[in-house]
Specification:
This protein is of the alpha/beta class. A hairpin with a 2-residue loop joins strand 4 and strand 5. The chain has seven helices and 16 strands. The chain has one domain (about 5-250): 4-Layer Sandwich (Nitrilase/N-carbamoyl-D-aminoacid amidohydrolase). The strands form four sheets. Strands 5-4-3-2-1-14 form a six-stranded mixed beta sheet. Strands 6-7-8-9-12-13 form a six-stranded mixed beta sheet, with helices on one face. The protein has a two-stranded antiparallel sheet with strand order 10-11.
Length: about 280
């Protein structure tokens, strides 16, 4: 089983209602990241469609099924380059309409995450709320869990993915200006408290008067930010992640001048028998 994988976060400026242009750029950036040695390539929330829609009626024409034209094109690049890609889009599923992330690899569609927690903002005010459980997808490059933006504000989201065995938690996001603490503090905390690798990829640019923060980042299981993007420009960030580090949940701390040992294990030391009120 592999241990080290190279991930890429593609920080881009999706164009509202410009699916063809955005898809072309997703394909181009995927090829570029693959040439840079990345195996897992992550794009922002709504990378295909843009995000700041003013009504359900305005947004629905830009939604696609999964599988659909966009995922099939990205799948072809995954097969050609032998990489795995996660990107955000608006999804039409029967009569339902979701803010989703598609996970694709060389063998095709691996999974879908539909946004669970919906703020009253932009297209999230009009999409349907997912009732699907959080899932971890077992792949040749590790066990991958997904969240979309506001999902990461709730510690239960990353915790359940970690309890299900995630080595890497991917957060495709659109952090708007005014949410600086969310982008700065929460990703390292989620990684640290769960002992998991976390890849948070945001967008940049302006959309209908809203400025987005950028600062995409990759965080290791001890909460160290391995790489961080700028706040203004489109760019690709790369980092190497250890799967074995995420699977080792216990920590032993010793003092060289004594025999004292401090052992910590955030999973074994949990007390779920006392957490019942959290579901109320």
């Amino acid at each position: 089983m592999i241990d080290k994988i190279k991930v890429a976060g593609v920080q881009m400026n999706p164009l509202l209602m410009e699916k063809e242009k955005n898809l072309t750029r997703i394909v181009e950036r995927t090829k570029e990241a693959a040439k840079g040695g990345a195996t897992l390539i992550v794009f922002p929330e709504c990378a295909l469609t843009g995000y700041v829609y003013l009504s359900r009626e305005e947004a629905i024409p830009f939604a696609e099924t999964i599988p659909g034209p966009a995922t099939e094109m990205v799948e072809a690049i995954c097969r050609e380059s032998q990489v795995y890609v996660i990107f955000g889009l608006l999804e039409k599923a029967g009569e339902k309409f979701y803010n989703s992330a598609a996970f694709l690899g060389p063998s095709g569609l691996i999974g879908i995450h539909r946004k669970v927690h919906l703020p009253d903002f932009a297209v999230d005010a009009f999409v349907d709320q997912s009732k699907d459980p959080f899932r971890v997808f077992e792949t040749p490059i590790g066990n991958i869990g997904m969240m979309i933006c506001y999902d990461n504000a709730f510690p239960e989201s990353a915790r359940i993915l970690s309890l299900k065995g995630a080595d890497i938690v991917v957060v495709s996001t659109n952090w708007p200006q005014g949410r600086e603490m969310m982008s700065k503090l929460v990703p390292p905390v989620r990684a640290f408290e769960n002992g998991v690798n976390l890849v948070a990829v945001d967008r940049v640019g302006m959309e209908r008067g809203w400025k987005f923060l950028g600062v995409s980042k990759v965080v290791d299981p001890i909460g160290d930010v391995l790489v961080e993007a700028s706040s203004e420009k489109e760019e690709i960030i790369f980092a190497e992640l250890s799967l074995s580090q995420a699977r080792k949940k216990d920590v032993t701390i010793t003092k060289s001048e004594s025999s004292a040992i401090c052992k910590l294990d955030r999973f074994e030391n949990r007390r779920p028998d006392l957490y019942g009120e959290i579901t109320k």
